[in-house]
Amino acid sequence: QQQQKKKNWISCCQDSFEDHDSSSRKVDLPVHGISETIVGVLGGGQLGRMLCQAASQMAIKVMVLDPLKNCPASALSYSHMVGSFDDSAAVQEFAKRCGVLTVEIEHVDVATLEKLEQEGVDCQPKASTIQIIQDKYLQKLHFSQHAIPLPDFMQIDDLESAKTAGDEFGYPLMIKSKKLAYDGRGNAVANSKEELSSAVSALGGFSRGLYVEKWASFVKVELAVIVARGRDNSILCYPVVETIHRENICHIVKAPADVPWKIKKLATDVAQKAISSLEGAGVFAVELFLTRDGQVLLNEVAPRPHNSGHHTIEACFTSQFEQHLRAVVGLPLGDPSMKTPAALMYNILGEEEGEPGFYLAQQLIGRALSIPGATVHWYDKPEMRKQRKMGHITIVGPSMGIVEARLNLLLNRESLDGQ
Ligand code: ATP
Ligand code: MG
Ligand code: MG
Question: Minimal CA–CA distance to 221: which of 255, 274, 258?
Fold first, then answer.
């Protein structure tokens, strides 16, 4: 019976794409190309760069707004406006030049996006979605109101309320800043009541806006699901992946995740339900924890392409970047399923500052170039910094065992254990 159920679920996932009535998928294309809509992207980092790469294949014009003259997306974009995505005047000026406004980072000036939306500017996803997501506490409140399973959480305003949370949730306790968090910068762990005040100071004090989460020591693995929503509200989910973090930073992504189909279904259901509660088109990443007792809890959502979806460039019929463009300009969504049996994504993080860091990365890339199924992505960031995401390598192959063996070869080590 379980086999039957599994079969039904798998075929239902595949059919949801394949069985689309082709007549309802017809689109009126402009005379000279796929889309005449100029896509404006707030932010020009590696995600913006990979959006530009996908766009060039379809001759879609992507403009980026980024303060760095030589940001990763600059050279590949249709045009680059130098300015901050957090500067109201710059965002307003930028919006005038594009047909649809989207983001590659959620830490943008959302009040301006709301104002622009009222004036008729097309923002995808919607400003309301960015507003919820850019404040992690608001995000947790939103999802709890929509009955999405989450780790317990509580706002803290002073040492007294932090102690109360510690008494209730126990230690270690995860303290998070509500805003401007990425790559774990914005998280601090208190292992005991005594460590509370130093952890809070490390995050810049209570005035920064903090909340706590119950420690997920019960976590078995971290999972992620990329969910795409078109302008017609059609939703498609990518296969569930497993993410391995090192010091709070995404280190390796394995696709597909090595978990039972029931867990995959649960993770996909939670992800789809979470995204259904938000507004607007685009791809969204849903980060999840799998608990020892088989629960799937939502960690956080990103309203844009995400590190857990980089492998989709080589491993899926439609990459997350192409999918995001299709979604925001109003083209039909593409097939998210995998075209290779297995894929691994390895982040190239800065190991040293400056030249020594570049040298180490070059050596790794040199080895990757001779590994079958490996593709190198280098983001061309002007500065090498420790723990900075400088590029990634995706390895595809006929089985997870084989791609893992290839990664071990790349890293000059015996097994994947011990990260
Ligand atoms: P990202 O770069 O994904 O945006 P972030 O700075 O927003 O990262 P989180 O996703 O909140 O940070 O946390 C980073 C990592 O820290 C998680 O992937 C997980 O490994 C760990 N973590 C987060 N929350 C908890 C928790 N409640 N219990 C245990 N570990 C946690
Ligand atoms: Mg985050
Ligand atoms: Mg995260």
Answer: 258
